[in-house]
Amino acid sequence: MLLSGAIVGFVASIAGFASAAPHPAIKRQVTQLRPQYDFIVAGGGTSGLTVANRLSEAFPQKTVLVVEYGDVEYAPGIFDPPLATWGGVGASASYFVVQSLPVPDAKNASAFVLAGKVVGGSSAINGMFFDRPSQYDMDAWSTVASSGLGSIHHRWDWNSMFPFFKKSVTFTAPPPAVAAQRGYTWDASVYGGSTPIYSSFPPFLWGDHNVVRNTWTDLGIPTLQECAGGKKDGKCWIPLSQHPVTARRSHAGLGHYLNATRPNYDLIVKHQVIRVVYPSGIESRPPLVEVRSLVDNTVFNITATAEVIVSAGVFHTPAILQRSGIGKASVLGAAGIPVVLDLPGVGSNFQDHSGSGISWNYSAPGNFTPLPSSMSNPAFLADATAGFDEIPARGPYTLAGSNSAIFVPLANITADYQTIVSRIKSIIDDGSAASYLPADYRSDSTMIAGYMQQLATIAKLLNDSRVPSLESTFATGTSVRAVNLHPMSRGTVRLNLADPLGVPTVSYGTGSNPIDFDVYLAHSRYLRRMLNTTTLQSFGAVEVNPGASVQTDAALIDYIQRTMTLSFMHPCCTAAMMPKNKGGVIGPNLKVHGAAGLRVVDMSILPFLPSSHLSALAYAVGEKAADIIIRDW
């Protein structure tokens, strides 16, 4: 097969990353930098590189610098050769390991979260599942953020964001033969971008993939043609963030850095943004950016003449702000940092998707082939490896995790959904909701006001039969997990007092709001209904977990607490887009409340979790942010 110019370029880009070939704009020491820059982006992740790419493109006469903690690396997919165990742990680009404090409502277990430490950020290490939120999530976000009250360009509802979802990715439909074989469906009208960020369907699926898809149909879950167009209450095919021909991971480091060679676009790697500094007052002009070399530990300032954009991620963005004296006064005081701007929302409002699951065995299994166990066959493994290097790629190594999922509204999960909604409204009305907040901002009136508004919004979402509450994915095997898409519990991200430049201290509040357990219970009981469907019964499915003896609410809650996945790697919301008097950190224009020349652009800006994974959203947020900044300048 002849390669198109775009594919040749993509393969060459991958080769460049694999060999760490120098890129004209890569800087590694302060002496290589310009005297000053127009725009400085703190963090070369998914959103940050998107913004930097678009700004350098729109303003050829303005200079853009990205300061990145990590380095340029090849970023393998989550199932690439030579890994021979699907679902195992293989090679990866670099990442931070974040271990939370013990979670009291999960038997004192700790959450483990990974965050990208590489050019490309978490798009270079994630599970490659590339879905979008429902339109109702985006509309609710816009309401909470009060973004409908100002300029039309600062709105964050579905209609305002949809063009940026489309712009942010180039989707390629599968070949007709693959589509027919796998049953793939899609709607080309919800895509249409020409950005070198790619998504596509894999040509390969495991032999038992359709068992659970058929089981979901037995449950009455509708099959949707497409779930990226705003409607998301059914069974979906989800594309992967991979190139449609090579099946290699597509990530921001490739699409928004290596493919954006411009003389005004610089990247310095292996450097940490310590803080931003306002020598003449926080309302005077853009701050200086204080940077530390990770090679020789030298510290220096870089001047931004236009703006500084903090895009260091959910954990490190609040850390940069807190080290800058921007945050909750008591938190800053404990760290010995003078207060520059008292913003209690910095590092607060922390959320992540979580949930438990079920598993079963087959007493009369079908002839499912191939399965991940087939990789232990030397001939099968050799063919799989060869297939990955073909053009187009084929075979098991074109897979990531899963590309099938259900998204189910609470109204379709339990007849008691309105009772759950009423409980939420009750704790808002009597004020007891505040007692479930983290202790260090439980008495802050602005944080309480913002939380109450979030709860009221979540109540409306859970009461809407079009809005998913549960997500469950499947690729192969005998287990599924339920993801609680709109948790009501909140945690915090604070500076590590023993190591202020290190990974912050993260407190997961999972389950601290007891109504979350009403939702976990409903989700678990719903998934157990799979065992009684015609499809699974035809294979003699027998429940293993939670197990036949686990029937009462108390027993099932105990099981959930013992087995819960505390993080599905979707952390968010630590610099929320909300009004300042409701605990917000930024406004709809992405500017930090009360700080000149400073914006935040990453997944920390979300006020609450949407019904999706976060990668596609992070790209779209970067595109929308770039549009806002370009219009302002």
TrEMBL record:
Binding site for FAD: T46, S47, V118, V273
Tagged with keyword Flavoprotein: yes
InterPro entries listed in its UniProt record: FAD/NAD-bd_sf, GMC_OxRdtase, GMC_OxRdtase_N, GMC_OxRtase_C
Ranges where the Glucose-methanol-choline oxidoreductase N-terminal domain occurs: 116-139
Signal peptide positions (record): 1-20
One BP annotation, GO: secondary metabolite biosynthetic process
Protein keywords: FAD, Flavoprotein, Signal
Active site: H570, H613
A single MF term (Gene Ontology): flavin adenine dinucleotide binding
Cofactor: FAD
PROSITE patterns tied to this protein: GMC_OXRED_1 (PS00623)
Membrane-crossing residue ranges in chain numbering: none
Domain of life (superkingdom): Eukaryota
Family, similarity comment: Belongs to the GMC oxidoreductase family.
Official protein name in the record: GMC oxidoreductase-like protein
Organism: Schizothecium vesticola
